[in-house]
Write a structure and sequence with these properties.
Layout: H1 17-26, H2 30-49, H3 61-66, H4 72-75, H5 83-104, H6 106-133, H7 151-165, E1 169-172, E2 176-179, H8 183-194, H9 200-215, H10 225-232, H11 238-241, E3 260-261, H12 274-280, E4 287-288, H13 308-317, H14 325-333
Antiparallel strand pairs: 1-2, 3-4
Length: 358
């Protein structure tokens, strides 16, 4: 007699920690992961060589104004004062930068990050000068405040991502909900109350810069798609473009619905753009929710969107009432009928930003 063959049980094994970490890292787009690597590498090099002269590279308004040390604008965002500082900032950057990069593209997000860092610094210096030299009450403390860290740009990204999400309220650490337009200000207050050596002006400048971007005040500084395409087509960037994590400016997920302002924004070449003066008349941009795909691309928030309900409705209309059950099951399980995930999620992200102020 033949011995019955023993059946092996179906065992579903869970991926190990290194595999899951590798999968998580591979899902982070090119520019966002590059910023994480650069900031992390700079911190560990400073730790190994014992470099702690942050006064030489931090953002110091008095040095920028009196000695015109403009390089501080960009060196300050790459250096961090402690392990927790760089860790929390990069943990906050990964979800924010990944979503924005999938919408804008890698080169476009690089340009926007430089634009936000520059505008943050200008606003920072302007407020510091206003406080130090106003005729009513002068205080030179802000002119000598030395700030480092990527958190100023992160606050700008928070404002932009919140504007893109279109939600009416957001959760603060899962404890309570606040109106979406005040979300960044609540985070600003929470961090000031819970942490020490936090640059209030640095974070506030980031919030103001983020709102200026969403209002379209920087439209005259944002080039067209051909500018980014020419950079992506250059030979010196070809090795980066070929990487699977790199996202071209015309790429991204087209199924994510991107809310637009009621007033149409367009990229202009002049400083005295009509869009700027029209946007100054409103405190917050008015939203319109449309079920039709966008026909005009916003230069700040590129990409076209379509609602998932419309796509599902089109798939459902393709079924014939006389189709047999097997054919319908095959059609329902086919990849063509799977809805694409939206680019932007409405989840709340916990941020723990701690820029070092000396």
């Amino acid at each position: 007699m033949r011995r019955p063959r023993t059946m092996r049980p179906n065992i579903v094994t869970e991926a190990g920690l290194p595999t899951r970490v590798n999968q998580w890292w591979e899902n982070i787009p090119f520019f966002t992961s590059a910023v994480v690597i650069v900031c992390g590498a700079i911190y560990f090099v400073c730790l190994l060589v014992g470099y702690d002269s942050f006064s030489e590279i931090c953002f110091l308004p008095s040095a920028v104004v009196s000695r015109f040390q403009v390089y501080r604008i960009y060196t300050a965002i790459l250096f961090h004062g402690s392990l927790l500082h760089v860790l929390f900032n990069m943990m906050a950057l990964v979800p924010l930068g990944s979503e924005l990069e999938r919408i804008m593209g890698s080169v476009r997000l690089l340009y926007v990050t430089i634009l936000l860092a520059t505008s943050n610094a200008i606003i920072h210096v302007f407020i510091a000068l206003l406080v130090a030299y106003n005729p009513i009450l002068t205080n030179g403390y802000l002119m000598n405040e030395c700030a480092i860290g990527f958190s100023g740009v992160l606050f700008s990204m928070i404002v932009i991502e919140t504007s893109l999400s279109g939600v009416q309220s957001r959760s603060v650490f899962g404890l309570f909900n606040v109106p979406a337009k005040w979300y960044a200000f609540f985070l600003l207050v929470v961090f000031q109350l819970l942490m020490q050596n936090v640059s209030l002006l640095g974070h506030l400048s980031g919030i103001v810069s983020g709102f200026a971007y969403t209002f379209g005040l920087f439209n005259f500084l944002i080039p067209g798609t051909s500018f980014y395409s020419s950079i992506e087509a250059s030979s010196w960037l070809s090795s980066c473009v070929r990487r699977p994590k790199f996202i071209v400016c015309t790429g991204g997920n087209p199924s994510g619905y991107i809310p637009t302002n009621t007033s149409s924004y367009s990229t202009t070449s002049g400083i005295f753009s009509g869009n700027i003066w029209r946007n100054l008349s409103s405190l917050m941009p008015q939203r319109e929710v449309s079920t039709q795909p966008q026909s005009v691309e916003d230069s700040r928030f590129p990409g076209r969107g379509r609602t998932l309900a419309a796509a599902q409705g089109q798939n459902a209309s393709g079924f014939h009432p006389d189709s047999n059950l097997q054919a319908r099951l095959l059609e329902d399980n086919s990849p063509n009928h799977l809805s694409d995930p939206a680019i932007l999620s409405t989840r709340s992200v916990n941020f723990n930003l701690n820029p070092t102020v000396r």
